[in-house]
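Hi L., both proteins are below.
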Amino acid sequence: MALLLGLGIAGCQADPNAPYLWGIGDPVRGAAFYAQRNFGDTSRWKGQPDRAAVAVEQLEFLTSEFATNPIYAPAVNPAVLQTLQAARAEMRGFLGIPDNADPQVVIEAMRRAGAALRAGNRAGAEAALSGPAFPAGPQVMLERMSNMPFLPRCANAAGMAAAEIARLDRMRV
């Protein structure tokens, strides 16, 4: 069992967009559990725009799910959601993504961009980061994603998201 768990963790780290627990796990829980790693310290992705894309995608995903998912929205502490929303605003502000950008558009674009970058396809990443959600243009977006600073609201939100999932788990027992 420990070997399988170790392989599962290694597999998740190799492909950050792999389904949580091979698709049998709850993706919201997975995103919350990995929040510290993915967007807890955004400066660690300096020079790794593919990993920065995962950070943006996961933050957008968690914020949207905690606000709209019928399982989580009614149960999540409002302070956690507010903190995630502030973190998303901080991330979007740094990257130049408009406040009114559709979260699903940003999520899908970041997934495509990250996958393209991991495959060595810069043109594919640039194509993914084109459109109204990215008014600065794909080259500027990739440059900013390559030089992510530490974003304190993101760090705070990452810790709170993980703690909130743990709290909700304790309530279910």
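That was the first. Here is the second:
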Amino acid sequence: MSVHIPITLRKHGGRKEIIFPDDATARRKPDNTLVKALARAFRWKRMLESGEFATIAELAEREGIAPSYMTRVMRLTLLAPDIVEAILDGKQGQEVTLARALEPFPVEWEKQRII
């Protein structure tokens, strides 16, 4: 007797990840790199809004990262709330990775859902 399970293995962040078919009922674990990026983005936004830092350049210098990278990560705060929740729950699509999330996306929430 043999059992056929339609999965694919993909390298992701230096480790192998099991990719289930779209109709699989198995629950994916949240993508830690994406979750950490979201947490940093909202933390940085809060630090700027509170007046703790006057500019992104000042905050980026303190964090030891490039201002251009910081602005790309902070753009994640513009994601629709349901998309952020899906990422935190690990329910985002398999194609949603940190690299893809850092690419430019529309500000309108409705348009974000159809990309």
